[in-house]
Structure formats: structure tokens, C-alpha cells
Amino acid sequence: MHPDSPRDASRRERPVILSAIPKSFEAGPRFLSAGDSGLPAMGEGSFPKHRGLLWRARGSALLFGSARGGRPWVFWYHTMACESTTILVERVPGSEDLPLPGYATPGSSGIDLLAAVETDIVFRPGERKLVSTGIRVAIPEGFEAQVRPRSGLALRHGIGIVNSPGTIDSDYRGVIQVILVNHGDEPFIIRRGDRIAQLVIAPVVRAVLVETDSLPQTARNDGGFGHTGVRSELSSPER
């Protein structure tokens, strides 16, 4: 390990906490450097002396710095697991009888979305239709909402979402509607109050595009669309 590694307690320097980092960051940083991965989280004494903010979204931050000899260090702060964010929900008139969407279990990642249909909707095989959930939401800036299929509907009935995952931007205020499709062999009926999809709230990183005449080369380069093949070393040979 590098002699200036943050694991060497005798060489640690007390950090100067950047104002850009929320006080709610109580978890230790995850330490990353070139050639190293999977190192355990460490305490605040492991910060390098010279550093800056590389990227930050709510609950996460990347810091870069250099230790003695100019070797770079990168720290990743992540406390999303212990954070929550408030989502404002407005019912569409006529949907007052439906319960608000919610998480099915304490460990669920997705919020169950319900069908706010007035009458039963029949999906014939291969048919797709737009189904309202009867709600509008205000996603906080810096987040998005992803509309994803439900695994049980997909497995048992072949019901999916055409544009999965659908994206709800933070500035969208329209009704959440889901484009369902029946990939199965039998007709399927959606009834009022059925759980038809799930909504996952996720942080968003805004990209800054920089035009260039050439891109850095990689071992893969433009290989794609199955260029690595289908069979693994453990698979039987193709016949």
C-alpha cells in the first residue's frame, strides 16, 4: 500500500470540512484510488490536505485531493441509505377514494402506483394502452422518478411498460400515466386500484458536454451489440 495511504494513522491530517458538504454526512468516506478498490470506509482523519469538490448530489459527494508526492485520492461520501426526501402528491379529481401510493415493505425501493381507471380495461395480447394513476407529484430538484414494471405482472401475465423505465422530471407537473403493454398470450384486465407499476426516486447528475475531435481509446472502443458473444466459459458450446 502507498506509504501515504490514509490507513497510516501516523500520517493523517485533520480535515478542513468544506462548506459544500452537508453536516448530515455522518458516514465515513469510501476511499478509492488508481488500482485500488473495495477498501473499507474510514474516519474523517483520512482526508488528504489538498482537496476540492468534484461532484455532489443530495446524499452523495465526490472529493478529490492529493497526498504527499502528488498522488491523487478520491473520496466518495454516500448517505442515501439513511436519508429520505419529501415528495408532494396531488390527487386528480375523482381519485379521492384511492389510497396514496406507498412502499409495500420497509426495504422496498419502489412506490406502488395504482390504476385510477373508471372502468375495467382489457389488454388483449400485443395491445398497449395509457393508464392513469390519478396523481401528480413534485419531484425535488436534483432527483428524478423512474416508472418501472412490476415483476409479478411481468412473470405471470406478460404485462410490461413500453418505455421502461419511464422518466418523470423534477419540473413535470402532469398526471402520472403508465404505458402498459400485454406481452402475454391471454387477455388481461386492469381494475381500479390495481398495482400496475412502481415509482423509484433517484438522484440525477447533470452532465456538461464538451465537444472534441477525438475520444480517449479503450480496449473495447466501438465494440457493441453482442460483440462479447453469448456463451460464457462455463456454457456448453454452441451447436
Q: Explain this structure to me?
A:
With 239 residues, the protein is mainly β. It has 2 domains: 9-82, no CATH class; 88-203, Deoxyuridine 5'-Triphosphate Nucleotidohydrolase, Chain A. Helix content is 3%, strand content 34%. It has 1 helix and 15 strands, in the order E-E-E-E-E-E-E-E-E-E-H-E-E-E-E-E. The chain has one helix at residues 151-157; strands spanning 30-32, 50-57, 60-66, 72-78, 88-91, 102-103, 111-114, 121-123, 128-138, 143-148, 159-161, 166-168, 175-182, 188-190, 195-203. The strands form 4 sheets. Strands 6-7-15-10-12 form a 5-stranded antiparallel beta sheet, with no helix packed on it. A 4-stranded antiparallel beta sheet has the order 1-4-3-2, with no helix packed on it. The radius of gyration is 24 Å and the shape is globular. The two termini are 48 Å apart.
Q: Give the name of the CATH architecture of the largest domain.
A: Distorted Sandwich
CATH homologous superfamily title of the largest domain: Deoxyuridine triphosphatase (dUTPase)
Summed up, the helix count is: 1
Strand content: 25-35%
Strand line-up of the largest beta sheet: 6-7-15-10-12
Q: Which segments are poorly predicted (pLDDT under 50) over 5 or more consecutive residues?
A: 1-58, 78-82
- Regarding CATH, which class of the largest domain? Mainly Beta
Which structural class do the helices and strands define?
Answer: mainly beta
- Assign a percent range to the helix content: under 10%
The count of β-strands is: 15
Biggest sheet details: 5 strands, antiparallel
Sketch the topology as an H/E string, one letter per element.
EEEEEEEEEEHEEEEE
Distance between the termini: 48 Å
Radius of gyration: 24 Å
Q: Which term fits the overall shape?
A: globular
CATH fold-type name of the largest domain: Deoxyuridine 5'-Triphosphate Nucleotidohydrolase, Chain A
What average pLDDT do the residues reach?
75
